[in-house]
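Sample A.
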Amino acid sequence: MSATAFGGRAPQIPGGDGDGPDGGHGPGSGGGNGAGGGGWDALVDTAVRLVGLHGRVAVHGGWGSGKSTLVGAVAGRWTGRVVRLRGRPGDELLPCSGLMQLDEGLVADGAAVAAPADRLRLRARVARMLREMSPVLLAVDDVQWLDPVSADVLGYALRSEERGVLGAVTAERTVRWPERSAELMGGHPPVVRLSPAGQEEVADRLEALGLSARWSGAVLHHCGGNRALLAACCEGLVRRPATDRPFGRVPLDGLGRVEGLADTWLVTVPAGMRKTLRVASLAHRPDTDLLLRAGCPEAHEHLAHAVRAGVLVAPEGSDDARSGAVRFAARALADAAARTGSAAERRGDHAALAMAVTDPIRAARHRAMAVVGADRHAAQDTARAAATAREGGDRGLSAELMLLAARLTPPRLADLRSQRLADAAQEAAAAGDVGAAHRAARRIVDDHGRPAHQVRALLAVVDGCGQDLAAAESFLAAARGAARDDPRLLAAIELRASVTANVASADFDRSFLHATRSAALARAAGDDGLRAAALTMAARTARLLGRPGEARTTLESALALAVPPAALGVSNSPEYLVARHAVFDGDLSRARAVLLELLPLARAAGGAEGLTDLCRSLAEVEAGLGACAGALVWADRARSHTGEADLSPGPAWYTSALVQSCGGSFGRALDYARRALDVSRAEGDVLHTTRSLWVAGAVYLHSGRIDPAVAVFEEIGDIEGPSKGGDPAVLRWQPDAVEAFAAAGLLDRAYALLAALDEVVTCDASHAMVRATVTRARAVCLAREGDPGRAVEILDEAAAAFAAMGRPVEQGRTLLTLGRIERRRRRVGAAKAAWEAAAALFSAAEARPWTALVGGHLDRLSGAAADPAPGASGAVRRPLSRGDGTPAAVLTERERHLVDLVTSGSTNPEAADRLFVSRKTVEAMLSRIYRKVGVRNRTELAARAGSRDT
């Protein structure tokens, strides 16, 4: 299929599309979602490329997954004739209904095609008609409703015509292998499965509409990644006035179009299944046995049908509802199922579930949901269940149960009700549900609850805000008013004020002052737990202020109080700060050991933020130790926990950017850095704003894009400024900034920053890592200034220091720099030795972007632009020639590099990563190459390139 049919654009495909037949696309394969796979654009590129390579592609997914939109996008890129057919329910029973859309004159009477001879003539006629439109794309939507006669005739045309004459894209509503599309196209077509949208795709949609990316996790859960629901949800949120948006949560209730679409989706299953689905919507992890016990006698058949319809999702790795608990494909669908019954019917369902479940905590919840009005005994039962859930680490369930207990508490027990609301606020904050925490706090304040309860609940709201602390001051002020002169309450308030100053404004001096006040007040109140948390915060800010000795002493005082980490929240404990300081010191083995000890405690405690922080730290540590594949896994887990708990995605995206720059790709690192930067700026999170900028600047530097690197580092300097000082082992952007300034020829600025670093970098063991990075940056300045000999000497010292600390990626990066300097000195042997040593380190660490970078240097050094295509080892390469045998116009070295990349299977995004350019630049380069070589697409280019290898 000619690429010119797509406007001369070379279709692209994201990595990891599967290993099935026909070009690597088997059942269930297809483009991924999110930053790594490129989201929706990558899905479109995938489908376009497959039609270009194979002449056809089958798209499949559940209701509302975006199949029709994808078919339309593929058709929109086709520059030839497009013939669109669409099946409708019932068409499968009407012979020739599909062909009638092609041409009403084709069949005067459907019965006339029953005879074999008539069917053969119709086949030939339709094939000839489509051939005369060449090049034509046949786009068939909802192929599951295409009638058998039309399927037979169109299938014959697809099987008999050349790919360059007739292309096809079909959409089939099924979450399984698209059998009808396969039959139409001849058995094994390439397939794109439309998996649900991921959090990054949701964030992109929200940001494009001016909405907060912070909402992406909640919106994803509500819509289940279903693109029809997602579009309706975004539309409703845009139209909803800002004054109608409750604090701390996404206003997803009452979005009429979403509810209507969910009801429409639910109608795709028979009405007789509604009760089973309603009971399932009220249960936690419903399965066949539970629903049978709860009075749904046809549960097995109903669940199996709902899974096939995409309403329910079977356990991971299975498509059978009998394999375990099922879940609704979207929260909005579960809500729709619950709405199919009256309030009285739902109470009856809860009563039945209370008798059917085996978990006593869940049974207590269902009993509470079945009660109307206040009930002291039911409230006590529910409160006990909430305490048990908390002990088991399920903080979200604990919060829900405690809110139910407060609702059931009789009005005459106002103090007990206030206490339960305060407990609910704390549990909700720990689970990341700041909206529930705020509602509980509001009720206590409105009811004039006890001051201690008010303060606890208000501070829980601050805790639940995470990185988005813009509104924290108002809650802290309200808490101070309620606390009066109680030292314990004031100590808790000062501790939150310290955190707010650190995160929201990066005012480390003010943060330290609040932390020391908190510690003194906690000591006066005799509260060791609060004192330990305050001392830990004081140690954290002392280190940020560049006072490592004071930080160590203060941290030792916090540890001496021997408060269990779970009592403080694992990420707020002194033990966790020990691990973080070990990261700053470059002692990653110790950091890893401490973090792994804390991990089971965080899992048991159930706090989403603490578990996310541990995963983020482990990702950073593993990347530093050279276990890049493991680092990517920890970063994925951090994003997953963030999305599940609806936390701010900024910190997790920053961590993903950091580890992608080590072991993933520079392109994905930049994408995650951009996402983290946008969210952090919107939330006023200065801490992660500067860190995200640092990763972006570093990636620009590594990619040779010096001007944007300089601009980014200038912005960081404007935010942090020399007046703030700080520990360079914690604020790690400065050495990279020195390298960027030197590369841009701004040596005065580079040396000024080095001088500032020399004033704060000490001989203390805690600065071993930063000393090595500063040495490498100084070498870049020396080489730029004209003293390569001295630069090489100190680079050897830096490489040895990184080796001693067990930092293979940093050691390899230093050797890469060393090789560049040696190459400029025309010391080819020394350059090659340095780059080969770096390549070995990067390969062992699975540092993919660095492996590609040093590989490019070695290729150019040896005179080859890139490795030969697979199977061409040892081949003698001749220059490319045009189709008529005449020599092609001379390709530049960069163009030859791109030819080798794309003909050996690299996608446009992958080639862009290897060449450190944008995807648009790759497309433009390919267009020039096509003109020079006289080809029209990748397939012809690959054939031409293959002909030169003998």
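Sample B.
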Amino acid sequence: MNKNWIFYTVMFLLLIVTTGAAAVFSYSEEETADAVSYKLADAERRAGGILLSADSMSVDKANAIILPEWKGRKQIAEWKEGETLEWSIDVTEQADYELSLGYYPLKGNGQPIEFLLYVDGKPISDPYAPFELNRLYYDEPGKLKRSGGNELRPKQLEGEVWLDTIVAAAGEMEDGPLQLSLTKGKHVIRLENVRESAAVDYIRLEKAVTAKAYENYKASQAAEASKSGDEAFITIQAEHAYAKSDSGLFPTTDRTSPLTTPYSPTLLRINTIGGSNWDVPGQWISYKFDVPADGWYKIGARYHQNEVKGSFVSRKLALDGQVPFQEMKAVRFPYALKWDILELGEETGEPYQFYLTKGEHELKLEVTLGDVAPAVQSVQQMVYDLNQIYRKIVMITGVNPDVYRDYEIEKSVPGLIQQFQKLSAQMTEEAAKLDEMSGQANAGSRTLKLLALQLNGFIDRPDQIPKRLENYKTNITALADWMLSAMKQPLELDYLYLASLNHEQPKAEAGLFAQGVHEIRAFAGSFFQNYDSMEGNEQADRSIQVWTGLGRDQAYVLKRLIDESFIPESGISVNLNLVGTSLVTAVMAGEGPDVNLFTSRGDTMNLAVRGALTPLDQYGEFAAMKQEYMDTAFIPYQYKGSTFAIPDDQEFFMLFYRKDVLQELGIEPPQTWEELLKIAPVLQNNNMQIGLPYENLDAFQLLTKGIGALNLFPTLLMQNGSGIYNAKEDGTRFDEPEAYNAFKQWTDFYNLYDYPLYKDDFNRFRTGEMPIVVSTYKLYTRLAAAAPEITGTWDMVPIPGKQRKDGTIDRSTGATGTASIILKDAKKKEDAWAFLQWFNRPEIQSQFVSELENEMGVLGRRVPANLISFESTNWSRAEQAKLTEQWKQVNEIPELPGGYYTSRNIDNAFREVVFQMGNARESLFYWNKDINEEIKRKRYEFGVEQ
């Protein structure tokens, strides 16, 4: 009996192995077709409305130049940054009008054209949220390039054509076109360019009309109803787009389903588009397709939407530039764990019918908040109101209220109970709408109901508010987090299709057997394919090893750029490796790379003093490259007269302030530290605080970050006319009177004015507890990405400084950052230098920064050290101006052997004064002696003194 059991078991296992092997080795991939090569066409002038051509501008008011001819059109305006366009118009009927422009984007940095709009002299747009005109992008035609058998995404090219765009409402929370309410009579329209350039042919004002309902649309086509389309099924591969609004809308890959076409179980194939990089309202993708005969058709899509759980995402559909009927303004794609098929209108019981004539047509899908837009806008206001109430309560109780004290909150905050009642009713109503909209309970409605319940508890028992204040704050954060997720509308498409009305709906997913075969093939292939590999061709004649210490997302972006640009240009293969903090250890063991990117300042110096790096200023191209950076940017990477690195980025302090809070208290943002000290009592009397930078040092920070942006001391030191090290760089300047003054000023912030030392800058600034914060500009990215409810209520400006005798303000500060290096033991130094030249080219740096933000959102935004590439980043022109103003006053600090002792002992002196109430002068001088002794010892150890 046992022998039979063993026999059948072995035979069953052999059958599985044989089936698996047959499935793997029987697979033969079909040759994928090249993408369709489209010829981009100029947008034509649409009929109707009030058309105002460029040559009809008010010449005495506008300063844009009129060109006789440009790209086939005559008498157009060349509209550059800072220039204005102005028209006087006569409106014959009072109505809401939509504004559109006919324009040709001029060559620039690849960003949208941004402008401010004025009607009769009154601004329509916020300077911090200007209107945008998109550019047009398309995939590079031809066969896709491959690396290791895996397809590489096509390069994104900008289309050089005339565009006609309806201006969309500005702001992340806004949805749909801008509508101008104009009365009958004369008006003046003024457009002020704030970013990029364009040639403008005309503007058009057209009365806003509501698209007809589906039933009316169908009835309007009744004359053609007898013409039903022949049996047809037309597939449009989603990755083969005709055009798109953003260079970040590149084709992607999917290996989860055997029905995704083109398909390979083991290799990466470009077969989908969208996902997390197609989720921002206003982004669009368009497709061209041919209809075989006049008639009625249905439209469907194979899609994947598994990110917005329990809800849906929306797209606006336009055919040949027009939304065919009202229901197409917000097409819902419901949540689905796996790939699914959606035929437009199927939720009504029968798919919508679209009447199309024979010939070529264009279909455009645009991201929209759709039906969820009112809810998001409502929740945004709720979160803002809840935070305002929290701040008013904290002004009375402080952030850590006494739970045994009755603050009589309901009397101290006028109208508090009424506000809670109003908000609770709004939340209950909005939660019901969300449940009805999605057909089930979802994260948003659950959070709203929880907060409404808590507010009802506060209404019944106001004395419980101080005890539950922290929980109240947590619930506000949860509601804000839902709002953030609802603003994102990710959708991945495999294909669209056009089908005759009686055609059967295609399958969304493979059957059990086909899916099983796919899984076996994918599993077997995983032994031969490393999908996380970033290696190049090791057998190539020219190959270099490149390490990077950034995250995996950043490394993938870099690898794509290398495959798409560097390798084809140079013929040098690159093996890219993602490493942590093991660079110095690996180099000392003789196992280091040829090039290391994003190297910390401490690691650069530790390797340079040990003779492990190649001086870069020995290369002839270095001098020209250096001109593209700030004057002091290379100082931390210089040693014994040589430069050993090229800066990747520089991170420095900026001042953040809440405009609404300061305005409420009658305070202006401080320009000097003296003004900051005058503000402090006003804020503290209202239980608010000021946040200054201070990092609790650990061994890693001591060795890697440098001293420039650890705390405020180097900033105050420079503004007092001193510095960290002397001219010979063999000791500090802390024995100077100016150094003592700076140190005393720094410690007094905490001893005399009780500024918080350890705090959460982001959350306290978000709630208004800390309306003034000095932090690095990276706080901006967190606020922009994760605090939309306070959009427009805060600003980022240069830090306070010290007023000079001539009245100007010295805002000098230090910085931190990373750099690129070539190891001394690099086998092919010339190839390594060629790579560094390529990576630090302005256009490559710009592309890297842009694609990183496409991949990671605003949180991935960087400030490249290269000044030319900085101009083309997604920072607005106003933000760039503020950053540049502070950047020009960044004085980099040299990195010396033993420099880690400077950071450590300055922190020791600070702690002695702040925590142990030590004497500032004695503490500074005592620890300064240890610093100088260590620097001297290290200089002797590395032969600097000899």
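B remarks: The mean pLDDT is 89. The radius of gyration is 31 Å.
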